């Protein structure tokens, strides 16, 4: 299936990874199509031509999607009229519940734990950004961070801390209970990072050099590409350790890392090179 821009794997009837949501553009290159299907069984020696993915299409032009940590629910944003509506779809029973609506339509969502969905205004270097949380059960809506130009965020799995960046790519950790921020002294974007399951470490793809520019806009637009090192940051004291410089390894390659993810046991770090969309794995042990 060509030109899949986003793919999210989830559970289907408690079977891990058997459901997949794929997002792509229709042939008009404008309409966003979101397909939710069941991954066919891979039978050794079976008919490779019988790998049809059966499923259903969600509404056209869903603007943003997040998967719950247990991967059995999907939160998505859809513009209806002049407003945006946030809906949770339960993959086990296909029931939908609306939990959010707003006259402001430019949001990025993230689902760090079962009791919290974060919504951050889409960033631009000269625009003050804001971050809110939704409780999926009570539908309560609370402001966490505000008035940070170029704000991008990544909440910890327990929801007690928020890694955030500004238009200078300066990283900080915001502690929700005390409302205090700790500057980390590292320049990158939260979407080039991932929290450990224990909430105590952060792995980031960190540019070796950052040119002057209007961030994060110039990086989003592809005007700037980074050559990253992989760093591990202690979320408690801010100490950072470089784990890998891909450009100095044998057959070295420049990597602009995105979509960082850890396996369930924290043994491997996965990431995609934004330069060519290739998938990489780093053994952490």
| Major sheet summary line | 4 strands, antiparallel
Kindly provide the radius of gyration, computed on alpha-carbon positions and rounded to a whole number of angstroms: 19 Å
Instruction: Note the quaternary state here.
Output: single chain
- State the share of residues found in helices, binned by percent: under 10%
Number of strands: 23
Can you tell me the overall shape? globular
Order of strands in the sheet with most strands: 1-2-3-4
* Mean pLDDT figure: 92
**Which stretches are low in confidence, meaning pLDDT under 50 for 5 or more residues running?**
none
- Distance linking N and C termini: 35 Å
Q: Number of helical segments?
A: 1
- Pairing-aware structural class of the strands and helices? mainly beta
Strand content: over 45%
What order do the SSEs take from the amino end to the carboxyl end, as H and E?
A: EEEEEEEEEEEEEEEEEEHEEEEE
């Amino acid at each position: 299936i060509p030109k899949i821009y986003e793919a999210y794997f989830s559970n289907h009837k408690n079977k891990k990874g058997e459901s997949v949501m794929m997002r792509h553009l229709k042939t008009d290159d404008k309409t966003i199509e979101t397909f939710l299907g069941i991954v066919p069984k891979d039978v050794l020696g079976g008919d490779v031509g019988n790998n049809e993915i059966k499923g259903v299409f969600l509404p056209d032009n869903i603007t943003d999607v997040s998967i719950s940590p247990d991967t059995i629910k999907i939160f998505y944003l859809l513009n209806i009229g002049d407003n945006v509506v946030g809906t949770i779809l339960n993959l086990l029973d296909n029931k939908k519940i609306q939990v959010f609506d707003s006259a402001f339509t430019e949001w990025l969502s993230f689902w760090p734990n079962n009791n919290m969905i974060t919504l951050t205004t889409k960033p631009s270097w000269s625009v003050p950004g804001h971050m809110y949380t939704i409780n999926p059960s009570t539908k309560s809506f609370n402001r966490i961070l505000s008035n940070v130009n170029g704000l991008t965020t990544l909440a910890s799995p327990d929801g007690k801390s928020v890694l955030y960046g500004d238009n200078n790519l300066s990283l900080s950790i915001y502690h929700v209970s005390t409302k205090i921020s700790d500057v980390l002294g590292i320049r990158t974007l939260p979407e080039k990072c991932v929290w450990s399951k224990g909430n105590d470490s952060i792995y980031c793809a960190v540019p070796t050099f950052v040119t002057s520019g209007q961030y994060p806009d110039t990086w989003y637009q592809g005007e700037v590409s980074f050559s990253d090192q992989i760093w591990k940051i202690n979320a408690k004291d801010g100490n950072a350790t470089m784990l890998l410089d891909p450009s100095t390894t044998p057959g070295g390659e420049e990597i602009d890392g995105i979509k960082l993810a850890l396996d369930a046991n924290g043994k491997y770090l996965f990431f995609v090179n934004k330069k060519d969309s290739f998938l990489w794995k780093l053994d952490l042990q």
